[in-house]
Automatic annotation (TrEMBL):
InterPro entries cross-referenced by the UniProt entry: Glyco_trans_2-like (IPR001173), Nucleotide-diphossugar_trans (IPR029044), TPR-like_helical_dom_sf (IPR011990)
Species for this entry: Actinomadura vinacea
Top-level taxon in the UniProt lineage: Bacteria
Name this protein carries in UniProt: Glycosyltransferase 2-like domain-containing protein
Residue ranges of domain Glycosyltransferase 2-like in the record: 9-124
Taxon lineage: Bacteria, Bacillati, Actinomycetota, Actinomycetes, Streptosporangiales
PANTHER family linked: GLYCOSYLTRANSFERASE, POLY-BETA-1,6-N-ACETYL-D-GLUCOSAMINE SYNTHASE
Length: 407
């Protein structure tokens, strides 16, 4: 049996510093790495070559077509797809998956953790980022193009727990970027006013900008079409209701979403909304029940582990520590000071967070409950880590600091 090979593909423009970390990660488990240089004016190409990547310069395609250049040039039997601001550290899981992949599997869906500071992330997105090298599998669509539809026509997409760590929300962003995205999406909608995907992403941009009435109108219009991942749109509406303080509306939308969704991962996201509703209503017992139900459906949920730990509290510090340690195993970046930095810019990810209100920062919770459990060495370790977090927070974060970041 031939050993499968993997090509890593990344497309970027003027992202030399971010690119180094991405290419370095891919190089650890891929047999080749291809960087599609989308008309960069910085030294992105040189940075990629210095790490052994092959460079494919784009001189004629628009962004929607550029991503397929990497797939066209790939020689591996499998292709792993990342953006410059993404990291994938569990290469062993990727290699094991492709080595054991049944013939009917066309690709793997990976969870993505969208960080936005203070050791928080959104985890509603699971993306087809590991696919067979098949000419029928190519990116389709415009804004946030994806290989999902093509891969599903070729075979089956299955879930693989090898998290993608998304750094975009840790980088300074402005309302101007959100408005540029708005203009781009409105341009798509001028050509096709009923494009459900464009309407959904427009709604998300409006949420980030705080334009909730516009957000609701766009999301509801997207939902009416029923053509773009209805459960994801309903989830967006549930989170929007929470943002607006409409707890009852969030509850009703989440319950409706649970009734209609067929995938366990989607149901977990709606259960997270209901858990937050319970917390806001002062019913911690119900919130804990919902979080435990989520874990039963999706055990590899680090954020839900943290919710359960918080809701158990001092009643059982030993159980809390077990959940905290499980969360750390699932997301080793909880030991990375980078994700603890506080952000105060407009962010499209933080509205979809699945942490319930009041969850302690991970390092502080570890120190506190390890002390209650009598684990003095762990207390010292996490207090020292907290000190490091505070020291790092006072420093500027040049983009180069994101190269080779490791927990």
């Amino acid at each position: 049996m031939t050993t499968p090979t993997i090509t890593g593909c990344v497309v970027a423009k003027d992202e030399a510093d971010l690119l180094r970390g991405c290419v370095a990660d891919l190089s650890r488990f891929c047999d080749e790495v291809i960087f599609v240089d989308n008309k960069s004016s910085d030294d992105s190409a040189r940075a990629a070559r210095s790490l052994g990547a092959k460079v494919e310069p784009n001189t004629r395609f628009e962004w929607e077509q550029v991503r397929n250049m990497g797939l066209d040039a790939a020689t591996g039997t499998w292709i792993c797809l990342l953006d410059a601001d993404e990291r994938l550290i569990d290469g062993a899981a990727v290699r094991a998956a492709v080595a054991q992949a049944p013939d009917h599997v066309s690709g793997y869906i990976l969870p993505r953790l969208d960080y936005f500071g203070s050791a928080r992330w959104a985890s509603t997105q699971t993306l087809p980022r590991l696919v067979r090298n098949d000419p029928r599998i190519r990116y389709e669509g415009s804004f946030h193009a994806s290989v999902r539809a093509a891969a599903e026509r070729v075979g089956e997409l299955v879930h693989l727990y090898a998290p993608i760590h998304h750094l975009d929300g840790l980088l300074p962003k402005t309302a101007e970027k959100r408005q540029r995205n708005e203009s781009y999406l409105l341009g798509i909608l001028e050509k096709d006013p009923d494009d459900p995907k464009a309407l959904f992403h427009l709604g998300v941009e409006y949420i980030a900008l705080g334009w909730y009435d516009k957000a609701r109108a766009a999301l509801e219009e997207s939902l009416r079409s029923g053509l773009f991942m209805p459960s994801r749109v309903e989830l967006g509406l549930a989170y929007l209701s929470l943002r607006e303080g409409d707890v009852q509306g969030a509850c009703e939308t989440a319950r409706k979403g649970i009734e209609s969704c067929v995938q366990a991962r989607s149901k977990v996201c709606f259960l997270a909304v209901l858990a937050e509703v319970a917390v806001r209503r002062g019913d911690r017992a119900e919130a804990l029940r919902l979080c435990e139900e989520s874990l039963a459906l999706w055990p590899k949920s680090a954020d839900m582990r943290l919710n359960v730990a918080h809701l158990i509290g001092e009643r059982d510090p030993y159980a809390v520590v077990e959940h905290l340690e499980a969360a750390l195993r699932l997301n080793p970046w909880l030991g990375n000071p980078l994700i603890y930095r506080q952000t105060d810019w407009v962010n499209p990810h933080d509205f979809a967070v699945s942490f319930v209100s009041g969850v302690d920062r991970f390092d502080l919770a570890m120190a506190r409950f390890c002390e209650l459990a009598g684990r003095s060495s762990e207390v010292r370790r996490w207090r020292a880590f907290s000190q490091r977090v505070e020291e790092e927070a006072e420093k500027d974060l040049p983009l180069g600091a994101l190269h080779g970041v490791r927990p």
